[in-house]
Specification:
Shape: globular
Helix content: 10-25%
Strand content: 35-45%
CATH topology of the largest domain: Methylamine Dehydrogenase, Chain H
CATH architecture of the largest domain: 7 Propeller
Length: about 500
Amino acid sequence: MSKSTHTHTQNLIAHYLKQNGLNDTLRAFELELNKKLNIDVVDESLQTIINDRFNFLNLKLQHMELIDDDDFSNNDDEFKIFTPQNLALIKSKNINIPKWSILSPNSKDVLKLGNLKSLIIHSSSALMKLRDDDDAVINVGLYITNDKNLIIQDLDSKNVLVSKSNLHDSVANKLIHAIPNTNIVLSCGMNGQLIIARLVKDESSGCYDLSPELKIQLHKRLITSISYLPIDSNSGYISSIGWDFKLIVNKITFNSDTIIECIPISDYKLMTNGSCITSFIDLESNLPIILIGRLDTSMISVFTIYNDLKLLEIAKLSLNDSEFSNHSFQPMNITMVDPIQNLITFATNHIPYMRLITIKFPSILEILSNYDDFTTLDSKILEISKIQTLEQSFQSNIPILRNIIISNLNSMSPQDKFSSPLIISRPFNKNGLWIFGDDGIIRGFDLSSGDVIEELKTHEGRIKSGFVSNGGETNELLISCGAVDREVVMWQ
């Protein structure tokens, strides 16, 4: 047993003794160990771990009942990558794992952004509209560089529309996103500030510019990731995580003629810093879902928003069913691979190769039914909102869901402990994942077979950032930015 595991076990025992009022026993335990134990660092209790173990054994029996012997009577590729537990879940939920779509980009081009080989530290894409009454959209790529420059490019014509320096004054940019089908750009600085700006066009000159409209101190420290979730065509939620240990949600309202409003809804203090974030709508209840991966744990925190007033943590998802430890790895990136079936893939920090863990995300109704006193969805949400604080801590009443993993696959994409994994789902009706690797290769991965289908040799050395864009109904654009060669490459 390693020293860290040994210490964690002692903290779990101390937490159990404290929670059950066994203070004399706790003092005797600390005296014998000759050290003060920290009971605030555990996000699972000893009781919860033991309950999970019993539940796991019961699930194992159920799985063996669900799986027929003939499911493993052959060595078909269809079954070789799945465990009995995976197959039982796939069978019981009628899951259809998307197979790789054959057509993929094969033409490589180096883009000229006029950035003089400065390092692009973040990039993204969106279909943008300059006016609500205008049907025309522009397929743009957005880039920020290490010398405080922001670039917006028309991906169809490959022309640079905007090149703007020092949007955040003397502070460097960290993240850049656009709200789809609007002219709104979200730019995050290294100081935790969010600037909301509009992409505007001078009709007389035909030139584009970026016009800042709102500045918000979103986090006290660096913003590490943001996610935009549309409510309707004129509003949505901006969810963000930062180095201040917080998940923060704001509601933004806008149209092309009025001033943008961004109203704080709620913030929630996490036990460790967030590593990745995504948001989507639960199709059954129409409630927003926010998923947060965190450092030092393989648990995924599941949040919803109550009545536009409060963030609620309603469950934790375990990505580590096989080992019953929540500290051996952590998720670093998330992508939705099938929004209809709620299939979500996580990229981990495993070394020497990133792993891809795909889950079947349960509905909010399924999640809340794991509470002992569940009656109806609305009543349970209301009850949680009354008793839950806005700081993550050990809470035994938050259920931990484990029977959710469809596959756990080796991506064959090399990485080390300093890597920032990047995986992106393919657009439109194309199935599969693109993995932007530390070796400069973009890999096309088939989740149904566990195979690397495509290897696009793109950069000399690590890929710093990238995105997948819709280049039309039959087209697919891959844009990647090299950390070593500092090139911006488009595959189409």
